[in-house]
Amino acid sequence: MGWQANKELVETLSSKQPGVNYREERVPNYVLPDILSCADGRAVHSAADWPARRQEILELFREHVYGRSPAAPAGMRFETVEIDPKAMNGAATLKRINIHFSEQADAPVLRLVMFVPNQRTAPAPAFLLICNRGVENIDYTRKIKSDFWPAERIVERGYVAAAFFNGDIDPDKHDGFVNGIHGLLERPEARTPSSWGTLAAWAWGAARVMDYWVTDPDVDDTRCVVTGHSRGGKTALWAGAEDTRFAMAVSNESGCGGAALSRRCYGETLSIINKAMPHWFCSRFHDYNGREEALPLDQHLLVALMAPRAVYISSADQDLWADPRGEFLAAQAATPAYALFARKGLGNDGAMPDLNTPLLGDGVAYHVREGSHTYSLYDWDCHMDMADRELKLKPS
Ligand code: GTR
């Protein structure tokens, strides 16, 4: 039968937050937009038809959800700040790279931290964390260690452990888009309902890391994973959608506006998120508050934008706010896009997997683990298991 929300937890949350739906039986009936039907009614039959449909879906997300992002600025430059070949007791080489977008003194700078495994014979595959928690979680001195970014473990498993702090690109507050990268690259008065929000700005930052990685001989740029937790997970999915150089995207408990289906209106909804975080999405997304059925898309299409590349969606059983079932259903509903490439996607029988039982499918993976809203070592290990399979580190 698979995972089901704990009844007591449903009762507790429902009484604490009476305006929020945590009951499966109150999920409205809905119909998801068809992945394989183009706007003009034509059906997508093969992998050859996919690029046009994919572009259409991408444009829908730019127009209605995350907003349109600009290209990298012409003056972008990479500065090597530090290289320490004896980091982590000799297991890794620490590289600190600053990505500059302008020569203006107060312009934002993306401070990329990388630990490259020393034990390797070829360029290494990489995991990039978009860090939405305090910078101490990505401490390059390793005096502070946190499961949110278990850099030693990532290196041990043969991956470059890389991270940047989202606030380097755009502060996580509603400032009218005058600060951060928005302030540098556009005039606030030129903004439209589809101008990029803060999540899109952070995803844009991840793409700039890819711009750097294609120049770095230590990194195998065909095997790079973008990952994030919660708001960082929403961002990682959008980064993987916008930049197909990422071979895999990971969403950890991203919930509303990430992996969870909006039409389910379970846990956090569009009205709630757009009110609390008005800067995250483009302003047109706010038009759908309480009108989810009017959206020309839903989040399964975001997962589908990864096809045929790999994607991992993970949930936590205490985190009903992020709607674990809605996240699973989006992952599963992406299957037709994978089928175009003769991939099975999640490839299950339709039921959710049991608790703590990762479903590593063909291109798409999902798990719901016990515990609360955080990025845990368990999550990281599962994500790396999938990357091992998909990025061909080990024979399957
Ligand atoms: C909450 C928000 C969620 C999630 C979370 C987080 O305030 O409602 O969508 O993103 O923050 O990032 O931890």
Automatic annotation (TrEMBL):
Pfam families: GCE_fung (PF22244). GO terms for molecular function: carboxylic ester hydrolase activity. Keywords: Hydrolase, Serine esterase, Signal. Residues 194-339 form the 4-O-methyl-glucuronoyl methylesterase-like domain. This is Dienelactone hydrolase. It comes from Oligosphaera ethanolica. The lineage of its organism: Bacteria, Pseudomonadati, Lentisphaerota, Oligosphaeria, Oligosphaerales.
